[in-house]
Amino acid sequence: xxxxxxxxxxGRARDAYTGPTIxxxxxxxxxxxxxxxxxxxxxxxxxxxxxxxxxxxxxxxTVFQHDPIWILPTPPVPGAGxxxxxxxxxxxxxxxxxxxxxxxxxxxxxxxxxAGRQGDSTAPAGRGAEERSSTRAPREGGPPHPxxxxxxxxxxxxxxxxxxxxxxxxxxxxxxxxxxxxxAANLRAQVEDSWERxxxxxxxxxxxxxxxxxxxxxxxxxxxxxxxPIARLAPLGIRTVDGVEHRVDCIIYAEGxx
Length: 258
Fold this sequence. Notes:
It is globular and about 55 Å long. The chain is built from 8 helices and 11 strands. It has a 5-stranded parallel beta sheet with strand order 1-11-2-3-7. It has a 3-stranded mixed beta sheet with strand order 4-6-5, covered by helices on one side. By secondary structure, the protein is of the alpha/beta class. It has helices at 44-57, 80-85, 107-121, 125-134, 158-163, 169-190, 194-199, 214-218, and strands at residues 21-24, 37-43, 60-66, 70-72, 94-95, 206-210, 223-226, 230-234, 237-240, 245-247, 250-254. Strand 9 (237-240) and strand 10 form a beta hairpin.
């Protein structure tokens, strides 16, 4: 039997959320949500597990996602879902990003990218000169320089060096690229709206999980995805950095789900 959700102590601070909150790793159908507008906050890995059953019950769901992940569909093999749930959460590791630009109004990620560009421009002055000198043709009569048309013995190949891989890392890099492309194709196939696909695309190396219901849940009419960063909690809901206050009846924190 499900339990009704009761509001929290009204004597809280005025700038805190005064409604009920739930912290969960796996949703266990222990609360009545059928008449509630629910906010779910969490990372992509946690939301992929928690959101689908909540969307199936609640009147309305607003998902506040941070750090999206790559998602692969569950293979259409009997028992595959049960087997995959037994694997460690980091079994597939991290996949490369899709180099997506930061979302508007996300100052933290924009600052990170700006700092990265400045870091590239502040490289040691002698480095560029050394690289240019290494590509010059050898003097007449002198020994050939490895940078003048051939690769030194034992040095990584130029193409692989540019990709940041060498030796045994080649197979790992190829496997990561294959999985990332498969996950990107899965996202395009399941999410038609280009803006929502952008919200669900990682812009940094991200985890990969196997789920078949998360994208489907986000497409439901009673579900809405918000990727604007949260500015603060308000007494009646959540205020994002774009100045919009999203009023909700309950907040569910999705934590540690994979």
